[in-house]
Amino acid sequence: MERLPAELVSAAFAGTTPRDAGRAAMVSTAFRAAADSDAVWARFLPPLELVTPEPQSKKDMFLRLLDGPVLLRDRLMDMTMWLDRETFAKCYMLSARKLFIASSHMPQHWSWIPLSDSMFSEGAQLNSVTWLEISGSIHTDMLTPDSKYGAYLVFKRTQNFSGFNYPIQKATLYFGQIMEYTSPVLLGENWTPPPELGVAQPQRRADGWMEISLGHFHTSGNPFYAVMSFSLMETEGEVTQKRGLIVHGIEIRREKSG
Hints:
There is one protein chain. The protein has helices at 6-14, 18-24, 29-35, 38-41, 58-67, and strands spanning 70-71, 79-83, 90-95, 100-101, 110-114, 122-126, 132-139, 148-162, 169-175, 178-185, 203-204, 210-218, 227-234, 243-254. It contains five helices and 14 strands. Helix 1 packs across helix 3. The chain is mostly beta strands. Strands 1, 2, 3, 5, 6, 8, 11, 12 and 14 form a nine-stranded antiparallel sheet that branches. Strands 4-7-13-9-10 form a five-stranded antiparallel sheet, with no helix packed on it.
């Protein structure tokens, strides 16, 4: 096999997995040159441009994405990406600027504030609304085929956080125009719903933020183009003022099986 043209060997490795390519690189010097080539590792990466200095090779870029989120050069630099260390699935965080937040252009309802503990420069702080709607979307061709994903709203509460105990909010996930998932959720902190209501509640993250699930989905084994959209809404309360929420973004990450 070492007598084959390097281009042919690289093409063969490109049809395998990152783990297989890494193992092949340890077989021989000839295999290492082919297995470490950009032609191979480019197949394991989506088309992207990093804000940080570009790694010297596609393999280096792949390894950098395994280390954690990297800011992408996506218009206003409002998106990060990383790779799941176990399965190499592509994961993303959409910043608050990349989301649809109803009334976010109206200062009496929302303010855009700097974030000191984020890769994003700013987040959205809720001043006062009665109806709440936050939504985002991602194209399925940006995700890894045949993988289980979850979408999470990442946020913080300020000292004047209030108005989220009732009515209960709703998380919804759509595949194109088809609703895949809907569930009651509660961002409030002073009331624990009865278990039989099946209400999801926030969890604290290692980075100091909080998150709440917006739904789970499984990508097809064959890559194809569609849009996954996810939202958190509460549009029934006409009196209660909601305030004190800081929106960091929506994270789309690989879920562990089982």
